[in-house]
Amino acid sequence: MRIIHASDLHLGRPLRGILVHPNLDEERFRHVGERALERLVDQCIEARAALLLIAGDLTDHWMRNYQLGLRLVRELLRLESTPTRVYWVRGNHDAENRVIRNLLLPSHVSEIGLCGVQTLTLPDLGVALTGTSFAKRCTEENLFASFPAPIQSLIHIGLLHTSADGLHTGDSYAPCGRRELVAKGYQYMALGHVHEPLLLSEKVPVAYSGCLQGRHFAESGARGCRLVEIDGNRVTSMTHVPLDVVRFGKIDVDVSSSGNLGQVSEQVVARCRATLSRLGDRALVARVCLKGRAGIEALLSCSAKLRSTELHGAAATTSERLSIDGFWAQPDCPNAPCLRLDDETTLKRRDF
Fold first, then answer.
1. How far from 156 is each of 136, 168, 182, 230, 320, CA to CA, in Å?
2. 348 burial level (CB within 10 Å; 0-12, 13-18, 19+)
3. Residues 315, 207: contact at Cβ < 8 Å?
4. 301 strand-pairing partners
5. What 8-state DSSP symbol labels residue 148?
6. Which helix (H) or strand (E) holds 208?
7. Strand partners for 286
8. What digits encode the pLDDT tens for the residues 183-211?
9. Prediction pTM value
C-alpha cells in the first residue's frame, strides 16, 4: 500500500523579492503554489496511492481568495475516480481561514478531528487513522497527549500539525516531545508545520513532509511530499518526492583560474547552466558564491557597479528560468563572513 504525505501548501503565499531581469520568464514564477498542488495530485495518480494525508496549512491565515479555494477543490476532484482517498487536518494557518471553512470539499476528501482527536478505521485498507485539527490559530496545548494507543490489528497512522519540540521552528504550536511521538507506537506519524522534510525517527517512522513549495531562501533545496510504502504491518520505505516548481539554492563557482571580469562571468554562466540542467523544467532562484583568490581579486579591482552589471548581465543570458539573487565572495578563512560583490541598490525585485 502506498501513502502520500504532504503538508504546508500555503496556497496564496507569494514568492518574495525575486530579482527580475529583461530575459526572465515571469510566468514561471507565478502561481507556484497551485502548480505544485497540481503536481501533488499527479503524483497520487501516478503512484496509485491509497491515501493522501495532508497535515495542515492548506492556505495562509490571511488568504481571502476564493478562486484559490476553488482551484484546490478542482485539483482534489481529479482524485475522485482514483483509488486515492484524502484526509486532512487544519494547522495554525488554516484554522480560522474563512475560505477553507466555507468550501464544499468532494466526498472522497475528509477532515479529521475538527471537534477534537478522532480515529477513523478503514477496514478495506487495514488502516486506523487518528488526527485532530486546530480549532484556533494559537493552539499551544499538547494535542498529541489525547491520541489513543494504537489498534494492534490495524496499521495505525497519526496525522498532526505540530512544532514538536520546537527545535526547528522556534515556536510552540501543539507542542509535543520526540520521545512521546515515538513511544505511541503508531506505524507512521505524518506531521506538518516544519517546512523542511525532516525525519524525527526512522525505526518508528515519525516524519515531516516539509512544505510543498519553497517561497524564500530559508526554504532552499528540494520541496515536495513523502511517498510511504507499507507492506504488511510496517513501513518499508519513505521517499521524499520533489514537487516544487521554483527552487531556491546556492551555486558555488570556482574562479581560482579566472584572471579578469570576463573570465569570471564565463565561469558563472557555465556553472549556472550545469545546475539548471539537473533541475528538469524547474525555475531556479540562486545565490552565487564565488571561491578562488585570483577571480575574486579581479572582481574587487573593478567598481561595484561595473562588476554588478557584468555578472548579472551574463547570468541573465543563461536562461529565462534563472533569477540570481546576488553574488558573494567566499573568503579563504571558513569562519569569515561572505562579502557581497554586486550592488544591491541597482537591482529590481518583485513579489510573485
1. 26, 26, 13, 11, 47
2. exposed
3. no
4. none
5. P
6. strand 206-208
7. 249, 324
8. 999 999 999 999 999 999 998 999 999 99
9. 0.95
